[in-house]
Design goal:
With 124 residues, the protein is α/β, with parallel strands linked by helices. The chain is built from 5 helices and 5 strands.
Length: 124
């Protein structure tokens, strides 16, 4: 069975680029354009992994990540933060305070993203 990945970004072009890469690598995908939708889709579709932008409307990616990681039902889902926020402080907030499993900054290397996804799904 193909692994399902939820891609969350408020830029449709990023969603399209990431989902087309994921589909070409054999993953099933779904997407969300804001933080509220990301939580709804996680609860209804239970993805195997989430790629999450930080700067989102309605609820930012840090809040989405922390909300899911504090919930017993969803805390095991790996989350990769994919964001333009490249500073050490943002990285620390994402990984240490919110519990993200990995952190990648935009612009990003698609091969590196796929490597990180494979590694996280194997360790799950």
């Amino acid at each position: 069975m193909n692994k399902k990945i939820l891609v969350v970004d408020d830029e449709p072009s990023i969603i399209q680029m990431v989902t087309s890469r994921l589909k070409a690598s054999g993953f099933e995908t779904c997407s969300a354009g804001d933080g509220d939708e990301a939580l709804r889709k996680t609860r209804s579709n239970r993805p195997d992994l989430i790629i999450l932008d930080v700067m989102l409307p309605k609820m930012d990616g840090f809040q989405v990540c922390a909300t899911l990681k504090q919930d017993e039902r969803y805390k095991e889902i790996p989350i990769v933060l994919l964001t333009a926020k490249g500073g050490d402080e943002s990285r620390q907030i994402g990984l240490e305070e919110c519990g993200a499993d990995d952190y990648l900054t935009k612009p990003f290397d698609a091969r590196l993203l796929l490597e990180k996804i494979s590694k996280l799904l194997k360790s799950k």
